[in-house]
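Recall that a protein's primary structure is simply its ordered list of amino acids. Everything else, from secondary elements to tertiary packing, is in principle encoded there. The following example makes that idea concrete.
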Amino acid sequence: MDSSYTYIPIVTKDVVSVYSVYAGGGVGISPLKKLNLCVYGTGGYFYSSVSDSSVSGGGNISLKGGLTASYALTSSFSIQGDMSYLYNFYLNQGLGLSLGVSYSFPINRSERTINTMPVKPEPLQETTIKRTGKGLEISSIDLDKIFPVLFKHYDDNPVGKVALYNNESSPVTDITLSFFVERYMDNPKECAVSEEINSKEAVEVNLFALFSDSVLEITEGTKVSAKLTLGYTLKGKPFSEEYTQSLELYDRNATTWDDDRKAAAFVTAKDPAVLEFSKRVAGWTQGEGSRAVNKNLSMAIGLHEALGLYGLSYVVDPKTPFTEFSKDKLSVDFLQFPRQTLTYTAGDCDDLSILFSALLESVGIETAFITIPGHIYMAFSLDIEPDTARNSFLRPDDLIFIDNKTWLPVEITMTKDNFLKAWETGAKEWRENASKNQAKLFPMHDSWNEYKPVGLPGTTSVSMPDRLAVVNAFHSEIVSFIDREIYPKVSSLQAQIRQNNNGSKYINRLGVLYGKYDLIDKATDQFEKILKSDEYVPALINMGNISFLGKDVKGALIYYQRASKKDPDNPKVLLSVARCSHEMENYGLVRESYEKLKLLDPDLAGQFSYLALRGEEASRAAEISEVMEVVVWDED
């Protein structure tokens, strides 16, 4: 609603005075950054009178429409132009033009952001600073509560923000701002500020902090003083101001679940207690498993069985159950470091997942967290491509294939059950929730890029479980896995043997199946059954393989030579003779057999190219190609 008064001279000496009351609206656009256009229209009522009192006044309807354009020369000054058409019924009408300059007084401060604050786990607590009204000053400070476990994270991610305001009529330059917390920081952290702040302008600046690992000594939440130092130049003269603000720090075990990757900061694979446990178990189980079982799987089985014998228990924390806290992303949860879980011999799902991940990572096996509604557990990489895994495992549906990687899920809370049961349960949980798009997998190494692991101060000695008990449990679980994998194949081959009157071909295939899974006694029984009545070449080669794997090179060569008499041009025979001769340093026979092999089967020869070398050079080449413990079984 608005009103106006218009003074209109007419041809006579009289003057018409017009009083108007009107209201309207318009639509504005900004085709350019500093240009604003507005189309408007108004309607109202006018009353007119003539200076000659003998003529009475009158009123009627008034309409007006037009276009206004303004261009901002600075933040305060702008030029404006207006073109309009006015129609006062029965009085006058016409086109109007106007041009002018406007100045806006800075009643409200403008805002400019230097960088964007990420989503915070808790609302910032704003503190208004008592202002002096002079120079450049901090008008408000917003500091977040600090999680010690993320102390490395704050070097690149804000701990809070401040508002700077220039009270002066001149711009300020050379602006610096640093943040420092005594005892928990070695040096002040410089924070990025714009090079210049204009008069009466406000700027928001993010604060960063490079904390030292001393924050990990905080076992109870505490408050400390944070010092901010502001420096700037005004009219060529330097100024400096200091501000002190309270900063709240949580305890070292605190975190929130607004980002599930945060738990990765607790996965301390280099912790001495973690290394002691994992390395001992690795040493105890080495050579006790099967060459046919994936090495990462073997290691995981050993560690899982060792944790069960160690007495590790799954216990839900009644104060901070993951089921409830995972729903409230801002609730502060209590997570244990791996060493603490080993010390307490108990933890909930997140604690046990953190521990098992740390143990596997400490021996070079990549891990990941899995989250489903109300629960977190883990998986580890088999370090083989999905196609290889699908062809190698009886139940590929129990594996997870993401980004050309093969993951094996483990429900680690099942510490009292065997590994295969924990695997089966973890796979089932993944399938059921993945089908509803409710399962997520977070690779540990990707999570570490954002939330680096931190070392818990101090050391703790681990009381290991009985070595023999661990080895026996490990061996039993390996056998159970192998039985599960080969049982359908064994049943099928046994049926074929019966149907083919104990044919050597099918008995040999059963022996190869046992041999591939390191069931040497069972494999030997099958091959010897054949050789009692038949110099079957595949059985001779395979018996030689068993002797070769058992480091009986001379015994292996005898079997290979028997096979050579029956089939001298058999590539597998040539390879086997060359390998035995190489071990016995009979390089003449090696060269003779290997050269012939290259002609008959160049691909097979290429897999064992170390045979063309001698001494340490050959040993290094064989080690690199990982063929020393490999034999070529003959299933035909």
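The chain has 17 helices and 25 strands. The radius of gyration is 41 Å.
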